[in-house]
Specification:
By secondary structure, this protein is α+β, with helices and mostly antiparallel strands. The chain is 29% helix and 23% strand. It is built from 15 helices and 25 strands.
Length: 522
């Protein structure tokens, strides 16, 4: 079966993760309705438009894992393998996206059901598009960028953040030439996740999409631009980024940071053609959570890679939604001396990461209470908090003052591992007696197994048995209890008390009971 956008929708149907709505929807209501749904929504009828709209496709870990065809916790590993073994795109002999081709004066973007999201949006925004560009020196690049509708054949494109497409555009502007691009709406999650990755200049992210697929992504030649497009997409816009540069106001828009962005000054894109299937489905990526969840595996893959290169053994990585899946990384490691600080430095080198916490591997980094406990009990601020000033930043960090240039930020790392000069024994966790064996439900249902009571065993006999057990090894009180599972608790406690009263036992430095030596040592 084809691995394309429609195949992904079918997978969501099969797993009851897609709700299809037959009632007509007004585009003014779409964002608010999607935000209320625990499933992706496919609106079959959109008032004023001929094509359906789907949204919320990647708005949960479950749906993202379905798109990536592995459990969520294995997405990062699959992505890493794809990055290590990219498969370059292949030429398509036929392209469903070219079933209908509209060019020239017939191009009309207002025929596409492009919604708004927030009350402050500057206008309808294309949000889920994979943009492909080529540079004579650096080759092909893919990324996801929003495009604001300005006119029937004109959009803005948000490329204020330093990235490869911005570099391509800067070079084209310097040469006073337009930059041809293709804009695919309705691509498979493989392409969306791969194109979100911030690859090094000269790397084609669509090779990562091929690595995820296990075969090269099918690309079709452009109709009006010398740039290929995704052959199995629902809709493709062909256009040119105009060479007048970053001079046109664009926005505001709902951003991944769960806040409203401001006005950005960006280039314009002249749309020369609309390619589409005969019955296309428009995809409106819902902000912010679809954007956020898609980013998490990208940063997790980068985190595993830099820690491996730093020689630090990681056991778990958590790119947190509270950090908008862009700014925060929590890492659990099998610590060797100095690894905590080395891990921090490695993780802070990842482009947008702002705050890092490193813990030992006994901490559940997906449990905020366990993580906070590690910080509370293992950190001395003057020793374990590292701050790096003037590092490159993402402009959408609202805590930074406005600037016309590329902003810089302070980065912070917290080493919440057990300090090397503190005995690990000080971190012995509480484990309840019979934890995992004693069940509340058994008592609620009065089905608990009754213990056999040996009430006829006198304290002297029991005390001697305990004394003999202590000849072999020192034992915690719980270990003594475990030796006599059928003896009532109170009798064991009295027998231990009797031995202590007679001066025959005491406790060692760990709290274990052992035989007390006579004054002569005999």
């Amino acid at each position: 079966m084809a691995v394309d956008f429609r195949a992904y929708l079918q997978v969501l149907r099969q797993h009851d993760e897609l709700l299809e709505i037959s009632a007509a929807v007004d585009l003014r209501d779409l964002a608010a309705v999607v935000a209320q749904s625990e499933k992706a929504l496919l609106f079959r009828r959109v008032s004023g438009y001929s094509m359906p709209v789907v949204s919320g496709l990647l708005q949960s870990r479950t749906r993202l894992s379905l798109g990536m065809e592995v459990a969520y916790e294995r997405i990062e590993g699959k992505l890493r393998r794809a990055m290590d073994n990219p498969i370059e795109p292949q030429k398509a002999s036929e392209a469903p996206v070219k079933e209908v081709v509209v060019t020239g004066e017939k191009v009309d973007l207002y025929q596409l059901p492009v919604p708004i999201f927030s009350v402050l949006d500057g206008g309808p925004m294309i949000t889920g598009a994979v943009v492909i560009a080529e540079d004579p020196e650096y080759g092909m690049n893919a990324g996801m960028y929003r495009l604001m509708l300005k006119e029937k054949n004109l959009t803005g494109i948000d490329i204020v953040t330093p990235n490869n497409l911005r570099k391509f555009t800067e070079r084209a502007v310097a040469a006073k030439k337009p930059l041809p691009i293709s804009i695919a709406i309705g691509a498979h999650p493989y392409e969306m996740v791969a194109s979100t990755f911030k690859a090094a200049l000269g790397t084609n992210e669509l090779g990562y999409a091929g690595g995820l697929r296990g075969e090269g992504l099918r690309l079709a030649p452009g109709e009006t631009v010398p740039v290929p497009c995704i052959a199995d997409a629902e809709i493709v816009l062909e256009g040119e980024i105009l060479p007048d540069g970053w001079v046109h106001p664009e926005g505001p828009f709902s951003e991944f940071n769960r806040l409203m962005g401001g006005i950005h000054y960006n280039p314009h894109v002249k749309i020369k053609a609309i390619l589409r299937r005969r019955d296309p489905i428009y995809y409106a990526l819902h902000m912010p959570w679809e954007n956020i969840w898609m980013s998490a595996p990208i940063y997790e893959a980068a985190a595993w890679r830099v820690l491996r290169e730093a020689g630090v053994t990681a056991t778990a990585i958590n790119v947190t939604p509270g950090g908008c899946c862009h700014w925060h990384i929590i890492a659990a490691i099998k610590k060797q001396p100095g690894d905590g600080k080395n891990a921090i430095l490695a993780l802070l080198s990842i482009a947008d990461i702002k705050h890092v916490v490193v813990t030992d591997d006994d901490i559940d980094i997906f449990d905020p209470v366990d993580l906070e406990w590690a910080i509370a009990t293992r950190v001395q601020a003057d020793r374990d908090v590292l701050i790096v000033s003037n590092a490159r930043s993402k402009p959408l960090d609202p805590s930074l003052p406005p600037t016309q240039g590329i902003p810089t930020t302070a980065k912070m790392g917290i080493d919440a591992t057990i300090p090397e000069n503190v005995p690990r024994e000080r971190y012995q966790r509480i484990v309840y007696f019979n934890e995992g064996k004693a069940r509340l439900q058994d008592y609620l249902e009065e089905t608990s197994v009754k213990r056999t009571s040996k009430s006829d065993e006198d304290p002297e006999t029991l005390a001697e048995k305990i004394h003999r057990a202590l000849v072999d090894s020192n034992r915690f009180f719980a270990e003594i209890l475990a030796l006599f599972p059928d003896t009532p608790f109170d009798k064991i406690a009295r027998a231990v008390g009797l031995l202590h009263e007679r001066g025959r036992i005491t406790q060692d430095k760990d709290g274990k009971y052992h035989l007390k030596q006579s004054p002569t040592g005999s």
